[in-house]
Amino acid sequence: MTYQLICGSAPLLVSVPHCGTELPPALADRLMPRAQAVEDTDWFLDRLYAFATGLGASLLVPRYSRYLIDLNRPSENTPMYPGQNNTELCPTRFFTGEPLYRDGRAPGADEVAERVKLYWRPYHEALAGELARLHAAHGHVVLFDAHSIKSEVPWLFEGRLPHMNLGTVGGASCAPGLRSALSGVLAAQTTYSHVVDGRFKGGHITRENGRPAEGRHAVQLEMCWRSYMEETPPRWNDGLAAQVSPLLRELVLTMRDWRPEPA
Questions:
Q1: What are the pLDDT digits (tens) for 128-172?
Q2: What is the pTM of this model?
């Protein structure tokens, strides 16, 4: 199985598409040695958001690293942020811009298509199926696409990111009331800097599945590593994780308990 799906009963699915760390053994001699550390992982998010299942949410977790295939990119590999440096469907560079593969060993079109079939499509079919199940049960559903990233990655963006980067595709991927409620949770605290629909407005999963007119609402949170872990080298920090967890819990509860306004 290329993913784990824990099915809940609440109208909320938490997706953590970049926390996988495995790489197929056959890739080892093609990748740069540095790639074995999978440094661009959204580290420990399955652990950080494990509490969500106890609140009734579903949780979808991939097995494999984004270096194999990026589950938050469209299968046709359209750039998410035109005019800026982007990582691809099957990445060929680290977040620092250096080559991920040894010379001449990057995947060609046929291999990319095979990876889509074996790894990308199963995750998205599971995601779509679970959203459909929850929508049928409740009349609406919220998808929370959870991400994390190093605070400074000059090849991808300028400067230092805020701790919390909430994305709703400029308000298009969820109802205004949900966007406002989540923004209010972030605004009510002063420990963590935040922005709404800034540099990270939402990736493919949020854009594809956020259809508020159909009762399907999607939100992305890109959280900086420094909020919950050591950045260099990447390492879990009990104290930081414990400090941020109440805020994450409040965000998850807000998504779980929110209801659309009657038509």
A1: 999 999 999 999 999 999 999 999 999 888 999 999 999 999 999
A2: 0.96
Whole-angstrom CA distances from 176 to 16, 25, 168, 171, 172 are 24, 46, 10, 7, 9
How do 3-6 and 58-62 pair as beta strands?
A: antiparallel
pLDDT at 162: 98
How far, CA to CA in Å, does 24 sit from each of 36, 125, 259? 11, 21, 42
Type of residue at 65? S
Give the separation between CA 249 and CA 134, rounded to whole angstroms. Answer: 20
The first and second tokens of residue 87, run together, are: 């990582």
- Residue 71 is part of which domain span? 3-257
Q: What is d(CA 123, CA 116) in angstroms, rounded to the nearest whole number?
A: 10
The 10 Å CB-count burial string (b at 16+, else e) for 83-115 is eeebbbbbbebbbeeeebbeeeebbeeeebeeb
Distance CA 19, CA 66 (A): 8
Give Rg (Cα) of the chain: 18
Residue 168 lies in a domain: yes
Residue 93 forms part of a structural domain: yes
The domain that holds 34 is classified in CATH as: 3.40.630.40
Distance of CA 236 to the CA centre of its chain: 18
Query: Around Cβ 231, how many Cβ atoms within 10 Å?
Result: 15
- CA proximity to 217, closest of 166, 263, 167, 173: 173
